[in-house]
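COURSE: Structural Biology Practicum
ASSIGNMENT: Worksheet 4, Part C
STUDENT ID: 0417
INSTRUCTIONS: Below are two proteins. For each, the amino acid sequence is given first, followed by its C-alpha cell string. Answer the questions at the end about the second protein only.

PROTEIN I
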Amino acid sequence: MWLFAAANFSSLNIKIWSGEIACLINLIIYQERMMRNTISVFGLSLLIGCSTSKNIYQFSATTIDSEERSLSDYKGQVLLVVNVASECGLTPQYAELQQLHERFASQGFAVVGFPCNQFGGQEPGSAEEIKKFCTVNYGITFPLFNKIEVNGDSRHKLYDYLAGSDASFPGDISWNFEKFLIASSGEVIHRFEPSTSPIQQEVIEAIETALRTK
C-alpha cells in the first residue's frame, strides 16, 4: 500500500517536474524569439534612421542655365549657400562672395548662389538677365541657380532643410544675402545674417575651420 502510494507520488512528481521543464523550455524559446524580433526591429530602425538622415545632398535644383543639378555633385566640399539679388543694397556682396570663392576654391570650397525675388522685388530679372548682370558687373564664376522662393508655402525644399522648423538654425530668411555654411558632410554648421560681410573675420575663420576638418 505504502509502496504503491509512494510510487504514485513519485510518478506524479516526475510528471509535474517534466511539465515544469517543458514550460520552462517553451518560455526560453518564446523569449529567444522575442529577443530576435526586437533585435531585428531595432536594427531595421537604425537602418531606416541612417538612410533618412538629411543633408543637402538629398536635394536638387535648376541651374541658371536651366539644367537640373543634384547637390550631391558638391559632396565633400565646404559650401556657402546664399540667397542673392541684383537690385539690393547688399548686392555689392557679390564681389566679396567671388573673392571668397577664388580664395578657397582650390581647397574644396564653393559659394552657391540662389537668386530670390521675395524681398522687396529686388531680383525681378529672368535667368538670362541675372546671369548677365552677375558676369558683367562682378565677374561671378561660382555656381548660380535659377530663381527660387526661400520662405512661405512655395519655399524650395532645400530651404525647408536650411531654415525650417527642424533645421539646425531654424527661422525664416530675413533678407537677401543670408548665408549658410555647409560642412563637407552636407550638414549646416553656421548661419550668418545678411549684413554680415562674406569676408568678415568670423566667416573666414568658420570656412577655414570647416576646410581643416574635411
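PROTEIN II
(use this one for the questions)
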Amino acid sequence: MLIDTILLFLSLIAQVSDILDLTGKQGFSSVVLQNGSAITQTNPSTLLEWILTFADIAGVAAIGLVVAVVYFQSRQRKFAGLIEIFKLLNGKEQREARAMLFEAYRKYKETGNDSIFDDEFYKEYVNRTISDFNEVGALVKAGLVSTNLFLDVYWNITLRSWNASRFIIQKRRISRNYDEYMINFEVLANDAENYSKRRFPSASVEPF
C-alpha cells in the first residue's frame, strides 16, 4: 500500500515535470508572485529550474523511501519465517518426534528391519519429523529465512534427522514413483552437509 502511494507520487512528479517543460517551451514571458503588497516579476526559466530541482530531490527521496520500505519488509518477512521455523523445530512435540525417529533408526541399524519406520508406534513420529523439515526447507527455499542464519542454528539437527530418515524417504519415493517426495528436506540437508564440511568437518551427525 505504501509503495503504491510512493509510486503514484513519482508518477505525479513526472507529469508535473512534463507540464513545466511544455509551459517553458510555449513562451510565457513572466510569472507574477505576490509577497505582501509588493509584486515581483520572476524570470520563468529560473522558476522552472527551482521547481524541477525540487521535483528531482523529491523523486530521489521517494525512491530512497521505496528501497527502505522493501528492505524492512524483507527483514520483517524473514523474522516471521524464523519464528515459524522455531515453532516447527523447537516445540515439545517436535523434539519428542525426533527422539522417536532416532530410536527407530537405532533399531533399524541393529536389526536391519526397515519396516520399523512404518510400525504404528513410530510411523507418526517419523512422518511428523520429515514433514516439519520439508516445510522448513520450503520456507528457506522461498527466501523467507536466511539460509546461513538457519544453518548457523540448525545444521546439526537437520543432518541427524536426514540421516535417520533418508532410507525410509528413498523407499517411499520408489514405492510412490515420486522422486520429489520430501525434496525440500533433502535440499536443506545437502546445504547443511556443505555447511558442516566447511565449518565442522569432524563433527558427528549420526542420529544417536
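ANSWER KEY EXCERPT:
Q1: Residues 91-199 form one domain.
Q2: The first helix runs from residue 2 to 25.
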